[in-house]
Amino acid sequence: MGQGARPTQWLFEQPIHSTKRLTITVVSAIFNDMVEYMNDRLDAVFHALSDPTRRAMLQDLSAGERLVGELAAPFSISLAAASKHIKVLEGAGLVRREVRGRAHVCRLDAEPMHAGMEWMRHYEAFWRQRIDVLEALLLAEDAANGEKTETTKRPETERKR
After folding, report:
1. Spans of all domains in the chain
2. When you count CB atoms within 10 A of the terminal residue's CB, does the N or C end of the chain come out lower?
3. What is the pTM of this model?
């Protein structure tokens, strides 16, 4: 260890200052590991959904179980290429594969998409609020200038999302 270096066991320690003379150190490694795990899962879901072939495979699986060959059929790809796409979907937890004899049967597991939807809902609410503030500012500016404006009212249910 060089001068001023800290042992690796202290990397996740964060000081909490309780008074000017006393410092308490709290270890938060467990929390950080959970956050990283959740971020990795969310990244894997968005990565899996980023490819149009994989999205089409998921749409096909939403109708029921499919063999790997059935998933590959609509595309001009080999079974090996289809299998690579399915492995990405499996890695994200979106597809479960079961081997029945020589057949590989895939089925959809949409549960991991819930985290992605929650992430998007958070930002949807954020942007709705920002747009509502912008609309109010523009209406106030128009009123101050004496301009008559027509506003497009959104349904109340749409505003509360």
Report:
1. 33-108, 113-159
2. N
3. 0.59
